Amino acid sequence: MALPNHTPWNYRVWHYTYLFFCGLVFFFLIAPLFVILPLSFNAEQYIHFSAKMLALDPEGFSLRWYEDMIYGTKNPWGLATKNSLIIAFFATIGSTVLGTVAALGLSSRHMPYKAAFMALLISPMIVPLIISGTAIFFFMAKVGLAATHTGIIIAHIILGTPFVVITVTATLTGFDHSVTRAAASLGSNPVNTFRKITLPLIMPGVISGALFAFVTSFDEVIVVLFLAGLDNTTIPIQMWVGLREQLSPTILAVATCLIVMSTLILVSAELLRRRSDRLRGINR
Amino acid sequence: MSQEQILSSDGIPLEESLKKAERKNKLKAFFLVGPLLLFLLITFVFPIGDMLFRSVDDRMITKMLPNTFKALETWDGEELPSEEVYKAFYDDFYPLAMAKKSGKLYQRLNYEKSGFSSGLKKTNRKIKKFEKANYKEQFMKTHKIWRKVEYWTALKNTAPNWSYAKYLKGLDLKFDEDRNIVQQDEDRRIHKILWMRTLNVAFWVTVFCFILAYPISHLLATLPMKYSNLLMICVLLPFWTSLLVRTSSWMVLLQQQGPVNDLIVWLGLAADDNRPELMYNVIGTFVAMTQILLPFMVLPLYSVMKTISPSLMRAGKSLGGTPLISFIKIYFPLTIPGIGAGCLLVFILAIGYYITPALVGGASGSLISNTIAYHMKSSLDWAFASALGTMLLVGVLAIYWVYNKLVGIDNIKLG
């Protein structure tokens, strides 16, 4: 944003102050994430920068914490990763299916009391997690699903559906309903129409909803904290336990892996959003 | 006479057949929403109702001492109850003492009036040797609580099956002996501080998020696409990154030997041997929460600012307004929907925050959620945890309702 030449000096000062402030805020947003990266390659057992690291001496860096993460004997990361992936996988499928179907109903113009139902279906996102956790824990204990994968998966489906409902409803707002009517007039039954016409068109919304559901489940601590037994430990639970005891470089190594993963997810979500906008003819 | 009715091809009046089709469509839409609705009702709405129920449920004592309460019904409360009541209490308490199940009773009654616990414990030991007659005399000999009217009054007061005592406790209030609501003793008033701190942190986090988010949302909305996309990553990457990762990076930054403290020392604001405590207090909670919740303020602001045409500001300028006046009179009012959405969202999220305060907050930076978790996992006072949870929930739902009225749920934008 170059300023025109005739800009008076006081506006100039004001403009650069504004840009400087914005720069600081962006720094505040992004910099904390990048502190973790170098420290996870620390050769020593501390979580602050050693003199060798600051001097960029190769000896100050090592992969030992990554080795510890993978091969360390008392590290439960393997089991935790397996559990996290299993739980997130099934929770994603569950929330995506339930959420997409519900969004189709909600977007129909025949749906009665639309706003009220929408508010109810999105409420798991708004209710503080500590309350959802408490309530879901009582429920699971009652039906005997506490400390089981099934219980945690059901809990994560609850937490994931609002995201799917929101993204799919958003995709459906630009949806041209005459294409489904055209399919019907050509003799297609509703299931076939959904499979061949509607689903491919709303796919970007469905996938980005599924990504949200996956990340929600993969990151979720509080509900699992209430529900999990020793066998159901997940990556966030292990991080939580580790952070409560002592901040170790191994945790920073795990955190680095998670940052890499979230970067990949961010990129795919962005690409999907653009594709969706293009498909719906929205140029931004 | 009315007009001639229009008939559809199968001979049914058109109006009726339209209504029928409409009904069918409604039903179809409802069927699609049905599965999720049912799922959430069973696994989410019903459990929350159950939690509400737990917070007022006070049937434990009535269940444990059924005969006593029946006998106490006719007691006038003026002097010590009759032999009958003591016998009824013996009938209730003897099996409990034998089965070693009386522990919960001490705890609950001692909450009602202190002294119960020691009295009941002693009675528990002695009751095995009681003779099956003259109960009143034997009880009175065992412990002084059985010689005082106040304890019987306190016991009778627990008769109702429903009690809002836990809610009073959550507000640092309690019942005195005459069932009047009074303030908790000075040194036990901890919850009011906690509520105030939670509201305070949520409020200031919202304010600071707004101050930080407004300029950068404006920049993102006005920059050409190729730059703003790049900068948007700075907002979206933290948004997609695990909360624990972001919290642990704040733990690295704010520790005593951490980079922020290094910077403070380097700037000469503090001596090296006297580094300020930035973590395990309310500062840590506040700073970390502001950064973590910032994207939730930027995204709604950005999506509103994106729709404001730049020609409006130019029009303001051409009519003689200075940039400041054009901003105050034109731009700012147009962004108010975004401000409302962002502030409410951040406030709702902040008020129920758990992870970050638990890790970087320490004791003086913990919020109401942490207390709920403490009562759920450590003190095991589930009824009290439920009561605090319900109070928090009511607050959040009230804000949610306002949010829905002002912004509309369908306008929540993600990513």
Task: Outline the structure in words.
- The complex is a heterodimer of chains A (284) and B (415).
- Chain A starts with 8 loop residues before the first helix and ends in a 5-residue tail after the last helix.
- Chain A contains 12 helices and no strands.
- Chain A has a single domain, classed as MetI-like (MetI-like fold).
- Chain B has 415 residues and is an all-alpha fold.
- Chain B has 3 domains: 57 residues, no CATH class; 102 residues, no CATH class; 221 residues, MetI-like fold.
- Chain B is 69% helix and 1% strand.
- Chain B has 19 helices and 2 strands.
- In chain B, strands 1-2 form a two-stranded antiparallel ribbon.
- The two termini of chain B are 60 Å apart.
- The mean pLDDT of chain B is 83.
- The chains are: A mainly alpha (284), B mainly alpha (415).
- At the A-B interface, α1, α4, α5, α6 and α7 of A face α1, α10, α11, α12 and α14 of B.
Measured by DSSP, the beta-strand proportion of chain B falls in: under 5%
The appropriate CATH architecture of the largest domain in chain B is: Orthogonal Bundle
**Biggest beta sheet summary of chain B:** 2 strands, antiparallel
Helix-strand sequence of chain A: HHHHHHHHHHHH
- Share of helix of chain B, binned: 55-70%
Task: For the record, give the distance between the C-alpha atoms at the N and C termini of chain A, rounded to a whole number.
Answer: 19 Å
* Alpha-beta classification of chain A: mainly alpha
The CATH superfamily label of chain A reads MetI-like
Low-confidence stretches of chain B: none
Number of helices of chain A: 12
Order of strands across the main sheet of chain B: 1-2
Principal-axis shape of chain B equals: flat
